[in-house]
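User: For my dataset I need records formatted as: sequence, then structure tokens, nothing else. Please produce one.
Assistant:
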Amino acid sequence: MDEFPAQGRECGILSRVKPRTPLPPVLAGRPFSSAQGLAAGITRGRMRGRDLDQPFRGVNIPAGSDPDLETLCSALSTRLPTNAFFCSVTAAQLTGLPLPREIEAERTIHVAVPSPRTAPTGRGIRGRSVRVDARDVQRRGSFWMSTPARTLCELSPLLDLPCLVAAGDYVLFRDSPLASLATITDTVARYPRGAGAATLRAAVPLLDAGSESPRESRLRVIMVTAGIPGLETNTWITTSSGHHYRGDLVIPSRRVVIEYQSRFHESPVDFRKDMTRISRLEADGWVVIQVNADDLDDSEELVSRIRRVLDSRPVVG
């Protein structure tokens, strides 16, 4: 029996692939909803083409674009109600608020609508219907999101007190504040009571615009809530030799400095400078207690250690 001829040119048949229908210029290269695609004359089959990905049901983006969070929010906003806004963890991530590692890694998109509207649903979405004041949402590019002050309120059921204060310190940071303390206080007062309310109200009086890192904020909250007296934040100390140094947490009445070391010295120069700084402070009767991430994980032992140092120090008049 004769063999079947090979497919293609050998048997006189030219292989042809039907060219992909170009996207309309108004939709090319940007996110669009399936409803927008249909309105522009694109079939559902065309929207399943290999040049498009669907990160959410009913949302299309250029394939292989590896979108960041802001791009995903812009894409999802094309199918959301006009009064929807991104909130909670998603708003915190967009704003850059410091979050615990496991929460920061979350990829679910948190989105809300004013009650009594029905909360959005779908793959990769956590929707909610909430009470919200128009003052508590802000525009970011093509979508709306919670303000930094409201975001703090939305995070309160998810974070412990030190982590919530660290996020609030970031919002208040004196060099680039995202909201004022008055705005935060007003937003907290208007926010509906529920899970996390006690943590939220405890956090506000602990906020400090001078805190320069989330770990420093956590250290301060641990010390304050443990009742360590006389703490001052980011206080300048002038040594007898005329050198000026700023301590993370300073207890002047006992000449004690508590500092958080975020990482090992980056260079030999930094190491030598740190040695000299500590030596000059100690020569003037100061004690420098250095704290690291492991210490924060065992706060009870850390507080006990610091109390022992304080108890051994005379009160400076």
